[in-house]
Amino acid sequence: MRPGWFVKTQSVFFAALLHVAVLLLLLISFSYTPELRPVKQVSIVNAVVVDKARVDEEIKRLKQAEEKKHQAEKQRVEELEKKLETEKKKAEEIKSQRLEEEQRLLKARKQKEEEQKKHEEMQQKIAKLEQQRKLEEEKKAKIETEKKKEDEKKRQEAEQAMQEQLEEEERKAQEGADQKLVLALGNEIHDKISRYFNLSGLPGNLSCKLRVNLLPSGEVVGVSILESSGNDIFDRRALTAVQKASPLPVPQDAETFERLNLRDSTFIFKP
What we know:
Blueprint: H1 3-31, H2 44-195, E1 208-214, E2 220-227, H3 232-245, H4 254-259, E3 264-269
Antiparallel strand pairs: 1-2, 1-3
């Protein structure tokens, strides 16, 4: 129900009530009997006219008051309606602002979630790239380590091969030198033994294979016949000659003596 309708109904009610009040005043005026006292003679026509004029004036005043009140009430209602409309607009603006703020917050939250998602995806990509980098570095380090091991192995093998080659060359050179030395010592030993061998009464072209045990000093500690010449006298004289020729010619250093295996030597003796 609108406030304007209520005001109009109220105005009609007050107007009807005013008319009832005027009629009651008129009835009272006609039925009222004043005290009998000496008064001035007034014309009944004039009294009636005066009362009617006053009533009309009062009715007019009441109507004006009612109209003024009605206008004031109308203005108040209009102001209330205007204020209500303003409040309504303000509420709608507040609601609109609230909806906009909610949308802005929703958009901001959505944007934040998207940024968080992008950040997480970026972190995952970085972690994946970091893992790949570590795997590549580990793979590269492993390859480099294996390559270093392989290079070191090749280097060691090359060094070992070179060392073996040098040792072989040295061994061959040493063998050559030892063979020459053994040959020279053999000749010296043969010559010295021959000086102590007695050839008288023996046939020519005899020889035997002797086994001689020596000390590093050249001292003979044992001698035996490995292969006989077939002549006992030749063999015995050969053994005697070896004993008399002691000490036999040997290298001055014990290392060379041992290397040439002179401690247990065998040789063919043919004077």
